[in-house]
Amino acid sequence: MPDVPNEQHDNVPSRQRRRFPGISSRAYEHPADRSALVALRKLTGFDTVFKALSGLLPERSLRLLFLSDSVRVSDEQFAHLNSMLRDACYILDLEKVPPMYVNQDPQPNAMCIGLDEPIIVVTTGLVELLDEEEMRAVVGHEVGHALSGHSVYRTILLFLTTLALRVAWIPLGNLAIMAIVTALREWFRKSELSADRAGLLVGQDLQASMRGLMKIAGGNHLHEMNVDAFLKQAEEYEAGGDLRDSVLKILNVMPRSHPFTTVRAAELKKWAETRDYQRLMDGHYPRRTEDKDTSVTDSFRESAAHYTDHVKSSKDPLMKLVSDIAGGAGDLGGRVRRGFGGFGGGTGGGNNGNHGSADDAEK
Q: Which helix (H) or strand (E) holds 262?
């Protein structure tokens, strides 16, 4: 398999990167993301319906906005980013290099949007925060979005989120739109895990991917941070607390389009240690030419198997309870009461509801 010659930039290690000719996005997509996309792509008339929405979506306005008020990456402007972009497209075998813009915004961010053709936007905050190898993983992340076709759904999510704000005064209208937005956000969080994997395939430097996520969480203070300690936070987040904390985790993540950074780092490291990843790096991966023969049923089965394994192996109190229910565990009521701290009530003599609540607050 041919390798990619290294671009000569400061801080880029002298090494070559493996290329993946004809790679299908199925090779790196998270099971939940992949099953949803396969089902949507198989839906008769799906593309036609979404293309019809293009007249309602502000895609033309967005393109003109970035063209007029951002800096387009090229050989003359942000040349190092342009080299990374072309390199990422070469590695993932994306024939048409999407336009890329740098937008003045101190908030570190990047996105891939567009219905007809994807465009990539990165903020100055992100460019200034990351080093060359960390940024390479981010560019690969966005190219992964483009290859998977995520830009279409991301554009619709942005449009519906804006629309929900405009019709917030219409109770039923807002509820209907927010239901769709909530579902799209849940899918998009899984798509971010897919794109993180694509970024690793492009950068081929797990530590750089970890550092980038850590910097997005804690800023440009790398000398004050540690990747291993950062990953321990993810373990503590998953396993800590009781059922109340599990519910709060769900409520906290629902408004977000991205998973929490510690979770993303842990998920990426976990994938990088799998046999599937090693086989992919050895050149054994699904090709785009096989996409049309992909079975929707098989994709859903893979997704279901993934979630089953996730529930069984999870240390989260709620997931452990679900696993116990599935396994027919006894004393379910007692487990739930203990999980919620006894619902604020104690069984000992003299303890009333107020005392129970005070005890809960101290835990």
A: helix 261-272
- Residue 199 pLDDT level (bands cut at 50, 70, 90): very high
Beta strands in the chain (DSSP E): 3-4, 17-18, 71-72, 100-103, 110-113, 119-123
| Tens of pLDDT, residues 79-102 | 999 999 999 999 999 999 999 999
SS3 250: helix
Residues 6+ apart with CB under 8 A from 83: 7, 9
Most confident of 49-53, 145-149, 319-323: 145-149
Q: CA 112 to CA 121: how far, in whole Å?
A: 6
Active site residue 95: no
Check: CB of residue 112 under 8 Å from CB of residue 92: no
Tell me the residue type at 90: Y
Q: Which listed residue (133, 134, 142, 192) is catalytic? A: 142
- The answer to whether residues 71 and 105 touch, using CB atoms and an 8 Å cutoff, is no
**Cα–Cα distance, 211 to 213 (Å, whole number):** 5
* pLDDT at residue 303 in the model: 58
73 vs 83: CA distance, rounded Å: 9
Indicate the residue type of 4: V
Closest CA to 144 of 221, 76, 91, 181: 91
The pTM for the full model equals 0.70
71: nearest Cα among 105, 96, 115? 105
Taking the C-alpha atoms of residue 154 and residue 57, their distance in angstroms, rounded to an integer, is 12
pLDDT digit string, tens, across residues 18-63? 999 999 999 999 887 776 666 655 655 555 555 555 555 556 666 7
